[in-house]
Design a protein that fits this description.
Elements (H helix, E strand, L loop, with lengths): L4 H15 L5 H15 L4 H4 L1 E7 L5 E8 L3 E3 L9 H16 L7
Length: 106
């Protein structure tokens, strides 16, 4: 059953309040993403995977924090950390996915 925009909005507001003070990437990243998908009435494990293997920028193997194949890559960082590294990681992963015939919408 599709959620109404009012329900999505209500869930998003509650999510923001719940997570506004969280700072620990490693301790809470998976819970964060599971609850994020709940906003939209999705079960994360049905659409996205944690630690998805991918060829890294340097040619070795690496892992994407969250991959929704064909839709979304997420690199999760702790609050206050510079996002430059996450951005370059994500762009490298996108290029690697494109090179293997997999593309992303976001």
């Amino acid at each position: 059953m599709a959620l109404s925009w009012n329900e999505i909005r209500s869930r998003a507001i509650a999510f923001g309040r719940e997570w506004k003070d969280e700072t620990r990437e490693n301790a809470e990243a998976q819970s964060f993403w599971n609850e994020f998908f709940h906003i939209f009435g999705k079960k994360r494990r049905h659409v996205a995977a944690f630690e998805a293997p991918v060829k890294g920028i340097s040619g070795g193997s690496d892992r994407i924090d969250l991959l929704w194949p064909g839709v979304l890559i997420a690199e999760h960082k702790s609050r206050g950390k510079p996002l430059d590294k996450a951005e370059s990681q994500a762009f490298g992963y996108v290029q690697s996915l494109i090179n293997t015939g997999r593309t992303m919408r976001y």
